[in-house]
Specification:
Layout (H helix, E strand, L loop, with lengths): L1 H19 L2 E5 L2 E4 L2 H13 L4 H12 L8 H10 L4 H13 L5 H16 L6 H16 L7 H6 L9 H13 L1 H7 L5 H16 L4 H13 L7 H27 L9 H21 L7 H9 L7
Antiparallel strand pairs: 1-2
């Protein structure tokens, strides 16, 4: 009878909850999977499993709108493997990502700088990887964090193993420019040695390529206190002179390398840029997943990433 069936089904649910831990009763008569993995899998199945092309198209359009929501990340990745052809969803994701910053003229200027700077360095990497490199450096300096270079490494896992000399120079200069944050957060007793070492590395990389930059950096290094200074004394010197020294370095970097600009972004713009970066990271991870896309489509998506709106 229906009543017996109801009792049996309740018993099954209680058994699954008590003995296997697969289900959890969230409210009276309302159960959900205890592990997020199950929820993500069945959510993905519900989105993908449709024999009606128009219904599937509509569901994928709605899914693409969630590209900036971290909790949907695994569902995007699972969808890539379940779809016979993932190109439509990837294209929708790319369009949604590009819209994130489309109405921000000031941020679009930043993207133009990223593109222009990337084109100005003669390196044997695809432009998208170089754009990812410079985007990362400036974004995470804006956020007062150390850059991870995760997006560039996702595009090419070997990207940072032996960094080309121009990029290695700009990375070293960026690390010196961020030194103020390191001093404020570090308990390292060798701060003076650290900044001398990082700056010396940058100077060494300029020796053949940019002698004017080498001279300017050497003059800045000569302004630093001697290595014999202990940490408290160095910190006192830095407290009195560090800000002015950093601004001199920044001026040299902007003039000689078009690097180190101060972007006057508000907190909302910074948050939008971080969302944009992370959404592009998800897009690359999806392209790298077990999904079917043509090589031409993959090239088209990657070649148009991190570019300003035309």
């Amino acid at each position: 009878s229906a009543e017996d069936l109801q009792i049996d089904s309740e018993a099954v649910l209680k058994t699954l909850e008590a003995q296997h831990g697969l289900l959890v009763e969230r409210a009276k008569g309302i159960y959900s999977f205890s592990h997020l993995t199950f929820q993500e899998y069945f959510t993905t199945r519900e989105i993908i499993a449709s024999s009606d092309p128009k219904a599937l198209e509509s569901r994928l359009q709605k899914l693409a709108q969630k590209v900036i929501q971290p909790r949907w990340r695994e569902i995007f990745l699972l969808s890539m493997g379940m779809l016979r052809n993932a190109e439509y969803l990837l294209q929708l994701m790319k369009q949604q990502i590009d819209r994130l910053l489309a109405s921000e003229p000031q941020v679009q200027n930043f993207l133009r700088w990223v593109d222009g700077k990337s084109r100005s360095v003669n390196v044997p990497y695809p432009l998208v990887e170089v754009r990812a490199f410079y985007f990362d450096l400036d974004l995470f300096r804006m956020l007062d964090q150390g850059g991870s270079l995760d997006l560039a490494r996702s595009l090419d896992q070997n990207f940072t193993r032996e960094l080309e000399s121009q990029l290695a120079l700009d990375l070293a200069l960026d690390r010196v420019l961020s030194f103020n944050r390191v001093i404020e957060t570090s308990t390292n007793s060798y701060l003076a040695r650290t900044i001398h070492r990082v700056l010396s590395r940058a100077i060494a990389r300029t020796r053949l390529a940019q002698p004017k930059l080498e001279t300017a950096l050497q003059q800045l290094k000569d302004c630093l206190p001697k290595l014999t200074l202990d940490a408290p004394e160095f910190e006192r010197w830095w407290g009195a002179n560090g800000k002015a020294w950093i601004e001199q370095l920044r001026a040299v970097m902007i003039q000689q390398r078009n690097l180190g600009h101060i972007w006057q972004f508000g907190e909302q713009q910074k948050a939008a840029l971080k969302q944009y970066y992370e959404a592009n990271q998800l897009l690359v991870d999806c392209l790298n997943s077990d999904c079917y896309v043509s090589s031409g489509f993959r090239q088209k998506i990657q070649s148009t990433m991190l570019l300003p709106c035309t």
